[in-house]
Specification:
The complex is a heterotrimer of chains A (789), B (165) and C (286).
Chain A (H helix, E strand, L loop, with lengths): L23 H5 L15 E7 L5 E7 L1 H5 L3 E6 H5 L27 E2 L5 E7 L2 H10 L1 E6 L6 H6 L11 E8 L3 H7 L2 E13 L7 E7 L4 E6 L4 H12 L6 E4 L15 H13 L2 E5 L2 H7 L2 E13 L5 E11 L12 H9 L8 E9 L14 H18 L4 H8 L8 E2 L5 E2 L4 H12 L1 H13 L3 E13 L17 E7 L5 E5 L8 H13 L6 E4 L17 H28 L6 E4 L2 E4 L5 E4 H10 L13 E6 L7 E13 L6 E11 L6 H20 L30 E5 L17 H18 L8 E2 L3 H8 L3
Parallel strand pairs in A: 1-12, 8-29, 10-11, 14-15, 20-21, 27-28
Antiparallel strand pairs in A: 1-5, 2-4, 2-6, 3-5, 7-15, 8-13, 9-10, 9-12, 13-14, 16-17, 18-26, 19-20, 19-25, 22-23, 23-24, 26-27
Chain B lengths: L4 E7 L2 E7 L5 H8 L18 E4 L2 E4 L12 E3 L1 H6 L4 H10 L8 H12 L7 H7 L11 H22 L1
Parallel strand pairs in B: 1-5
Antiparallel strand pairs in B: 1-2, 3-4, 3-5
Helix pairs in contact in B: 3-6
Chain C lengths: L6 E3 L4 H9 L5 E4 L5 H6 L7 E4 L9 E4 L2 E5 L4 H6 L1 H6 L1 H7 L5 H4 L4 H7 L5 H8 L3 E5 L5 E4 H4 E3 L2 E2 L6 E8 L5 E8 L9 E10 L2 E10 L6 E2 L1 H7 L6 H10 L14 H16 L3 E2 L2
Parallel strand pairs in C: 1-3, 2-3
Antiparallel strand pairs in C: 4-5, 5-10, 6-7, 6-10, 8-9, 11-12, 11-15, 12-13, 13-14
Helix pairs in contact in C: 5-8, 10-11, 11-12
The chains are: A alpha+beta (789), B alpha+beta (165), C alpha+beta (286).
Amino acid sequence: MNVFAGSLDRPNSYIGRSVTRPNAKRLLEGKGRYVTDLILPRMLHAAFVRSPYAHGKIVAVNTEEARALSGVRAVFSGEDLSAICTPWIGTLDHFRNMKSPPQVPLALGKVTWSGQPVVLVVAESRAIAEDAAELVELEIEELPALADPVEAMSAEAISQGLDSNICFATKLDSGGVDEAFEAADLTVEQNFIFGRHTAVTLEPRAIVADYDPSENRLTAHHATQTPYQFQDVYSRHFGIPEANVRVVAPDVGGSFGMKLHVYHEEMAVVGASILLGRPVKYLADRMESFVSDIHARDHRVTARLAVGKDGRISGMDVDDITAIGPFSSYPRTSAVEGNQVVRLMGAPYDFSSYRANLSVVFQNKVQTSQYRAVGHPIACAVTECLVDAAARELSLDPFEMRARNLIPDNSYPRKSPTGYQFEKLSHEVCLARLRAIMNYDDLRREQAELRGKGILRGVGIALFVEITNPSPAFYGVGGARISAQDGAIVKLTPSGEVHCSISVTEQGQGTETIIGQIVADQLGVDRAKVRVMTGDTDTTPHGGATWACRGAGIGGETALQAARKLRNNLLFIAGLILQAKPGELDIREDWIVEAATGQQRISLPEVARIAFFRSDTLPPGTQAQLSVVHHYAPQGYPFAFTNGAQGCLVEVDAETGFVKILKHWVVEDCGRIINPLLVDEQIRGGVVQGLGAAFFEECLYNPEGQLTNGSLADYLVPMACEMPDIEIAHVETPTQDTELGAKGVGEAGTAAASAAAMNAVNDALAGQGAVLTQIPMTPTRILRALGSI
Amino acid sequence: MNSRIAIALTINGEIVEALVAPRTTLTDFLRQDMQLTGTHTGCEMGVCGACLVLIDDRPVHACLMFAVQADGCVVETIEGLTSRKAIADLQKAFHERNALQCGFCTPGMLMSAYGLLSSGDVPSREEIRDTLSGNYCRCTGYEAIVDAIERTARDRQNTETREEA
Amino acid sequence: MKARAFDYVRPHSVEEALQAFANADGDAAYIAGGQSLVPALALRLQAPALLIDIARLEELHGLSVIGDHLRIGAATRHFEILNSGLVRTHAPLLSKAASFVAHPAIRNRGTFGGSLALADPASEFPAMSLALGAEIEIASLAGNRSVAAADFFLGLYETALQPGEMIRAVHVPAATARTYCAFDELARRRGDYALVGSGINAEIDNGRIERIRIVFLAVGSTPVQAKNVENLLIGNCLTPELIRKAQETLEADLDPPGDEQTPAEMRMHLARVLLGRLLGRLEATP
């Protein structure tokens, strides 16, 4: 239950205020401290020899010449590292009958994707390591590669010990689906293809593993979102006591989900450091990133919607085949995206008959796993594209079609057709806001005028529902050692300032800033006096860290409760000093004041001085507790769902198939907003990732399983010239599960941007007999749809 | 081993003499030998713009040059521009507009912006976007960066106008 | 992505550079801007034993008008082409094309001669040198020689340059009051290599086309001149009907390559569209 006041008028009220990020200043001056920058004494550098084939049998590996090269300190193969590292398997218990083969750091016996690391060279410099890598002779007998998921479903299993290439399959059926379609006035059905994407963080993956045999102590400076998860992984798989493993994530140059999975290279480098007793640095170069970072999406969906003459949706039937890698990733698996796709379908709408089939299929490509907005863009695009198709058939305006079907704002709490529990969403008000900020009617008028001049403009909208603040229902129940709780230590320093260390982490989204805002707000101190630190397992309590939009909702609530605890302790001590009742005191602007009058009584520095240095003046038996530790785990709803609506305006050049994105709009409801400036930029960045997917990004493979566009020159990321300005509006429906009331926002932009874009392009092409149901919507695909080529 | 070559150049106003292997890129030289880690590497092939530095006052990719080629040149990195306060207004505008998240692209963005604004004109948003066409940012979606550069250009012109008046 | 080890020299004259190459048993490469060479080295696609840095050779610099042509020193940087008033007046087609060359930071370093020597069929300057009927001045130990752009681009990254030879300068016939030109390209993102690009340089007298060169980039292993289209147009005035015919004729000139992403048919289609648009907006010399 929120009891939070939220007034921006009181002193030190920071929750809800746009404030700048204190930790951004060093980044602006080039003083960031990324793992990439780190140089340690005696440090060596790693390079990998990778499989040139997508599938093959390792016949021989000759490393003799590489070892002999001057400056090379060690060359390791699969056997060397498997001897000190136990295998890992990427399954979760609550995904019934899920299977995946065991994984090891470097290939043993077989290679199963092109780019798989086979040999690790460690040398005095990266350049020498690469020189030596060229001298390693790999003899691999090439085997037929499975690069097509449909073919892979019935082909012989890639992995020995498995009986097929089906990693995971599930069916959802609420009942009544066949009846709904029989009774429907209209059935719309489409086949969708969602290209394979990858995260392309600007700082590639980076690790410096530093094992000290004298203490059996591993320190991993690791560019990751989830230090605790890796502390656990390194401890268990290398047999080092957990307390002896320290994972430090300093400034991280982008992550978006990509840097929280276990990668073979990182495991190999940790192993190398253990074997050598020296720090070893590995920095994926961009070419390596493309063939070793997780990929995402890659779904083929057939879906149909049962609709009445009145535009009311009565049923939905979905089949999703998603192609992952040769195994499921660890420890979060490669099945979560598919699972979220089939569970988020139709989420904004009021109907009950739903059925879905999901097949998660192994193939000979690099692993896939969670990347920003896991599953959401697919579920959203399929749903919203079908809704638009139905609206076109029925000559209903897209806004009207949605208004007739969305779950009314006054009908919560309720369940989605797929079984998700919604606490409170705001589709009606979001849709109305979207229409207003788009000036929708003007856009339609302008569109009609321009059409007369042969200019094809399109307007598309999409509603979405986003999963945030996950409880242990996400991973914990499946047996993964991934925490759903967070922990914070908040302490008063002897000078009366505040230090907070917390388990949620920062990759630039502003985690430290909002935690500082919450702590300062709750304590009643100037924000400049609060120092927040994150990203070090030795100095912050154990927690889940940052993923699935949990930083603000769960981390923020942790900080709020911790700060209140410290506040109570401070008021207690101040009460003793002032001989006043703590309940009659308050803290404002770094002073203990009389709550009723605001009169200043004693400053926090003075309280701290007395408590730390003159405890003899406190009443006997008093022990001042000026550091508090607090943990918080979400209870109540398993997830805090958010919602919103997006709009997109495009112009299609029907002669060339090129699309100009003119403008994009987002209305978003993430509950309590802590910092509007940061929230807006999360949304903008997310939208552009979604637009990148819609128009540019795709990992292209040939039939031999080779990635054919694996460089930053060939894989088209969204750049400044092609991206539009994005207008944002907010609706605030705080969750009642926490006092803070915040939900997540990091994935909202990505969730619906490609859906809105797809609807906009199809709106532009309406009347030309062309419909696109594949992303990215490239000029070639657009001209093909138009029949021009 | 190929022999190292002696170079002398000016980096951030300081004369530096060094022996470098010919294959060492300017990026690696700045980052590792000079410990100027504000210059980043994102692709090592001149596509992402994270490694932009000024050579003789023009933004260029440090990853597309070998350090030996910079012999005799005047090189400036983000650290140098910061300490001589050449872009303090840009940095402030970026900070206030939150025109950065992870910060990895930021030094390169600031180099491109420095190059663009050196003419003294107020560029259009399209011109700003065009100047940033080789600077990749995965976090922001670019709009905030465009806003910050636009605001700085306007502020500079207003300051100039006031000074003239 | 670190280059293999190599040696490096920075000679003081073209002569010295040519000699350094000759002494290297053919295992050397010239580097000027290096904007294409350095990535190739980093990816270890190329690994010469010696790099010969010619970027600072005075003899290779400078833009000047000599008689009826514009002389462009080989080491002239792309941004100098883009910003040059001389180029704008005497070779407006190059000015137009220059803003499409990559990104600002690449243009600050890349050189005109380097672009021609690399002969990437998707690059703007090789194709426009052909469209302008440029002469390429080549230095070698045997002495200077000159090759017409039409005889220079022989194949994919293959030119008339013999091992050890280098481009000294490029001579472009200067535009006249009757010169009209246009350039455009279709690239997925600003600064990317184009799917198709084209430049047209024409002499038009009272609306009648007297001479015209139409060159396409990214449609083959070299820049491709649309000779059949040119022949169709010469002696005629541009009309919508004629432009349509020109678009139909283009098929006879181009045989573009294709792949999964951009099939040949797509490139052909885009080339036709581009041709129609460019013919419709030929501009006089400023």
